[in-house]
Design brief:
69% helix, 74 residues, mainly alpha
């Protein structure tokens, strides 16, 4: 269970979207959170990999090799 207090303008937009589509406010809030969490997790992973690269704790692959490996070199 999660309770959120939204700014009035955001709450009004959410209410209107829910009214127009017949979906609940919770549905749209959940969709927004899921999408944002995916982005945050991607950013965290990218930052972690960059730090590993800077500490020379990870391998790199030349772009040409990567493209060839996945059949994108044509």
């Amino acid at each position: 269970m999660l309770a959120l207090e939204l700014p009035p303008d955001i709450e009004a937009r959410l209410i209107e979207l829910s009214r127009r589509t017949g979906r609940s406010k919770s549905f749209y809030a959940g969709q927004a959170i899921i999408g944002h969490l995916d982005d945050l997790e991607d950013i965290y992973l990218a930052e972690k990999r960059l730090e590993e690269f800077r500490r020379e704790e990870s391998d790199t692959v030349p772009l040409a090799e990567l493209l060839a490996r996945h059949g994108l070199d044509k």
